Amino acid sequence: MSKVTVRANTDIALIKYWGKKDKALRLPENNSLSIILDGLHTTTTVEFSSQYHDQVIIQGRPVKKRERQRVIKHVNRLRTIADLDTPVKIVSSNNFPRSTGLSSSGSGFAALTYAVLAACNIDLTEKEISILARQASGTACRCVCGGFVEWLSGESSDTSYAYTYQPSQYWDVRDVVAIVGEETKSTSSTSGHIGARTSPFFTMRQQNITQKIDQVKQAIDDKDFTKLGTLVEAEALEFHSILFTSQPSLIMWYPGTLQVMHEVRNMRAAGIEAYFTINTGFNIHVLTLPKYQEKVQQSLDSLKLVQSTHTASVGNKPKIIQDHLF
Ligand code: DP6
Q: Which numbered atom of ligand 1 lies nearest the CA of 17?
C-alpha cells in the first residue's frame, strides 16, 4: 500500500458548534457555519505496513495515551470499512500552535480521514467523508469541505454532515489570527461541550440560533461585511457567556485576548472594518477585508501581548500532496 500525505485547512466558526445531543456520534445541538482557512493547516502522512506497529507522531513526538487512543479509534473505524488490519504509521504536523483554540483537531482529523481513505483506495463522496470525520471531531466534518461551510446538525449519523454553502472564490474575506499563547489550553472543547446545557443561557441560544444562521447566510450571500462581522462578534461573545456561566465555569481568555478585542474596537472607531471571534481557547481571530488586512496585522503585531500573527484567506478542501513527512 502506498504512502499518502494530505494537507487540510482548519476553519473558524462564524456560528459555533456547542453542545452535543449525541456524544458518541458527535451529533451537535445546532447547525454551525464556518470559513475554511487557507493559511492554517495540518499536514499528515500515513503508511500501512506489517513492518510497523500502530504509531502516532504529532509535531515530532509520539502523542500521549489518550490522544493516541482517539486517533487509533478513528483509524479503526476506517480500517473496518477497508476490511484491513495492517498497522499504520501516522506523522502529522501543524503550521500553527495546536490545542490553543485554533481547531487543530478539525484540520487534524480531516487530514487523517482523507489520507487513510486514499491509502486504502476507498473512494467516498464528500458527504460520506464528512460523516466519518465528524465521529472523530465535530469540526473535522466541516474541514473536509471548502469555502463557506454549513454543518447540518441532523437527527442521525447519516444526516449530520457539512457541505459548501458558498465556494472559496465567492467572497475574499481575510482572517488575521493573533497568537497570545502557545501552551495547551486547560480545558479541551470535547470536555467543554459536556457542560453546555448547565448554562442558563443555553436554552435562549438554541431558540435564536436558526434565525442567526439565516442572517449570517444572508450576509454572506449579500457580501455584506459589516453585517457579517457584527453578527459574528456578537455570536462569539454569546458563546463565551455560555462558557462563563456553565458549571464548571470556563474562562478561556488571556489578558492578550482582551487586548486584541479592545484593539479591534479601536480599529473600527478609526474606520477599519475588523471583527473578532474566539473558539474555546485564548488565541483570537480577527476577520477583515483584503484592503484592511495589512493595517490590521500591523496593529495586532504592535500589541505588547501578541506573540505573532498568522493570516488566512478563504480556503479549499483537503488535498493530496507529495511532500511526505517520513
Ligand atoms: C468552540 O470540534 O473541537 O470550536 O467534537 O469534541 O472534537 P469535538 O469538539 P470540537 O469543538 C469545537 C467547538 C468550537 C466551535 C466550532 O468550531 O464550531
A: 18
189 close to ligand 1 (CB < 6 Angstrom)? yes
User: Could you read off the pLDDT tens digit of each residue along the chain, which spans 326 residues?
Assistant: 789 999 999 999 999 999 999 999 999 999 999 999 999 999 999 999 999 999 999 999 999 999 999 999 999 999 999 999 999 999 999 999 998 989 999 999 999 999 999 999 999 999 999 999 999 999 999 999 999 999 999 999 999 999 999 999 999 999 999 999 999 888 888 889 999 999 999 999 999 999 999 999 999 999 999 999 999 999 999 999 999 999 999 999 999 999 999 999 999 999 999 999 999 999 999 999 999 999 999 999 999 999 999 999 999 999 999 999 99
Question: Which H or E run contains 15?
Answer: strand 4-15
- Verdict on whether the full-model pTM lies above 0.90: yes
Pocket flag, ligand 1, residue 311 (CB < 6 Å): no
- Peptide bond preceding 248: is omega within 30 degrees of 0, i.e. cis? yes
- The beta strands (E) that lie in 224-326 are given as 274-277, 284-288, 308-314, 319-321
